[in-house]
Amino acid sequence: MYLKKIFLFSFTLLSLLHADDYVLGRGLHLDDTFNVGGYFSTEFESNENADTLTLDDVAVMAYGDINPMFSYLAEFEAIGFYTKNLTDGADEGSQQFHIERLYGDIWLLDNLNIRFGKMITPVGYWNIEPINVLRDTTSNPLYSTLLFPRLLTGLDINGYVPAVEGMRYHFFGQKNHDFDEHYINIPNNHFFGLSVEQEFSLELSANGSVG
Q1: How do 167-174 and 70-85 pair as beta strands?
Q2: Cα 39 off chain centre by
């Protein structure tokens, strides 16, 4: 444990010495191939029974561009990290981190790109924005929690449909076990789907998914 703390301190110090100036909300930029960051969300609830303070989602991530054709992202998250009952002093929580996302992107053409690894299932609207503090709704959409696996470990072939302006597609699938089978709403090892979105303007789009 002592050596682990020294390693983490040394890594953090080395990162700060070699990083660009830190900009809040953009993470720590070391170079184009390696950026690190993270986020957390909190919740305070007060009712007639108790006052509770919750440190809900805690996540750390790294991402970067290896070259113009390949990029990556890795995110590890702990949910229900810590809850403190301010009325009776009791506390609970889980500090176990799970693989939220771990994927690579191969950028080929506007109408053909490949994402492989563990990713957010590309269905719906809010589901594609996984960080709850960055979206207008703090809960996960029912669309992604009841009808589709919220996460998949497999492939997503995506791009714009040729000769159709503003139409984007995702053909995705999984035929293997998940990276973390304890951290998924619908366990599966055989799943395929198609999602299509038509962009009408910057403010208006429509999409549908089957799987």
Answers
A1: unpaired
A2: 11
Q: What is the DSSP string of 88-102?
A: T--EE-----EEEEE
Which segments within 6-69 are labelled E, that is strand? 28-31, 34-46, 51-67
Specify the pLDDT at position 1.
Answer: 40
Q: Which range marks the domain in which residue 98 is found?
A: 32-210
The mean pLDDT values, 10 residues at a time, for the chain of 211 residues are: 39 46 71 85 83 85 92 90 83 86 93 93 70 54 66 93 90 87 77 88 79 74
| 97, 124 contact by CB (below 8 A) | no
Distance CA 100, CA 130 (A): 9
In a domain? residue 119:
yes
Long-range CB contacts (within 8 A, 24+) of 201-209: 207/124, 207/125, 209/123, 209/124, 209/148
The number of helix segments (H) and strand segments (E) in the chain equals 2, 11
What domain count does the chain have? 1
Which pLDDT does position 44 carry in this prediction? 84
Cross-strand partners of 210: 194
Predicted TM-score of the model (pTM): 0.77
206 lies in a domain?
yes
Q: Looking at the domain assignment, is residue 69 inside a domain?
A: yes
pLDDT of residue 8: 40
Contact status, residue 155 vs residue 172, Cβ threshold 8 Å:
yes
Tell me if 6 is assigned to some domain: no
Please report the pLDDT score of residue 130 as a whole number. Answer: 58
